[in-house]
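Revision sheet: structure tokens.
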Amino acid sequence: NVVGPYAIAVGEGLALDAAGSSDPDSACNDSIQSYSWDLNGDGNEDFSGAQVNVTWAQLNALGINAAGNTNVSLTVTDRNGASTQGVATLQVYQGPTAAAAANPNVAGCEQMVEFNGANSSFTGPAEQGFNIVAWDWDLDGDGQYDDGSGQSVNHPVTALPDANGNIVVNGTLRVTDGQGRTDTASVTVTIVVQNQPPVANAG
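Predicted:
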């Protein structure tokens, strides 16, 4: 018997587990002697053992290299040569996808802007930690996601002109799922400054 279905994200390894397998003749000193795994359906053994850790590179070599579903086949053989096959599903998901928006995306200096990550999404079973649990924002470009947390953050925008005289704020959202997987997305706010002349006071 195979412990499954299995669920991983793109880039992750797979922990195969045949712990549910058993031999009904164990009272007569019979037992399972071998565990043979076929992950790509070609009928050949890819791995052996009751528990096997498979890397993403090894999955790639077997043709499992993108999101999608495939069958994992386990054949167990006992001391007397009798064998049985069990099948479980391997589901490969993309993981979390960040999506950032700003309203308005053209603003005046120090104007309050809403940065929103509500359109971020995930695939995979929430009960296995694929759901997004954190939305963190970097709104000053320092690479630290410490300028706000949550799907929606209101923040005043200000910046210095770049080499071309443009004044923009690049907000970056980092989403994190229940297993610590992350993804980032950025949104740009253009600051329009209506320059006013300074006030002179001669005393």
